[in-house]
Design a protein that fits this description.
The protein contains seven helices and eleven strands. By secondary structure, it is of the alpha/beta class.
Length: 228
């Protein structure tokens, strides 16, 4: 990605990979993107970690037909005829867990999440809606927030996520298919994948128990949406 004007940030790649393709950014670490609909936030960054006998997927994209089709293309063209061994979801937001059910069902593999993120996702998907409930409005009002802001957020979400809204409206269930079980990960846990160890580092703010993955030997942090 190109440097942002007025920013000290620089990026090693001039553009992100197109959906359905990957770029190897470190040995055994493959970067891919999935579409996010219109607006400035038009894609999400996801990762494949290569093991000797398969792959771990880090985050999954939205629960749309388009994203599912891109994943099937990845499975058929990018995995070197090796299976998926597990899905690691960093946090509970729909663009990160939307295809978790599809992938774990396809390969019959575990979903790895922190306990807070998993149960937040289960709760959210049991009544997934782009609209703020009266319970939410009362909660934020007691905290001193102007509740009209919630309506502005809903409107902004609908404009940014036209594909997600269309998929939700067409699905009938109004929610992604989400795994009914998971394997818990926590601060300090380690995934040994290929020749490298990835340590789980958790943080809050963006979500309750967001999990990042840090590999000391590769000097690489997969931070997902968590920023300090």
């Amino acid at each position: 990605m190109q440097a942002i004007a007025g920013s000290d940030l620089t990026y090693p790649y001039s553009k992100h990979p197109t959906a359905g393709t990957t770029i190897e950014v470190k040995p055994g670490v493959f970067w891919l993107t999935m579409p996010m609909g219109g607006g400035s936030l038009n894609h999400i960054n996801l990762y494949l970690l290569e093991d000797s006998d398969g792959w771990f997927i880090v985050d999954t994209g939205l629960a749309t037909r388009e994203t599912k089709d891109h994943w099937i293309n990845i499975f058929e063209s990018q995995l070197k005829q090796k299976p998926v061994k597990g899905v690691i979801c960093t946090h509970m937001h729909p663009d990160h867990v939307g295809q978790a059910g599809m992938i774990t069902d396809r390969y019959r593999v575990p979903l790895y999440m922190t306990v807070s993120e998993y149960y937040q996702a289960r709760s959210m998907f049991s009544g997934f809606s782009m609209q703020s409930s009266w319970i939410s409005k009362e909660f934020y009002a007691r905290a001193g927030m102007d509740t009209s802001f919630l309506e502005q957020m809903s409107s902004s979400w609908r404009k940014r996520m036209p594909q997600a809204m269309k998929a939700i409206q067409e699905s009938g269930a109004s929610q992604p298919t989400f795994p009914t079980g998971f394997r818990r990960i926590a601060e300090g846990d380690v995934f040994s994948i290929g020749d490298h160890d990835w340590q789980v580092v958790t943080g809050s703010g963006h979500s309750p128990e967001h999990a990042c993955l840090y590999c000391k030997t590769l000097k690489t942090l997969i931070s997902s949406d968590h920023h300090q």
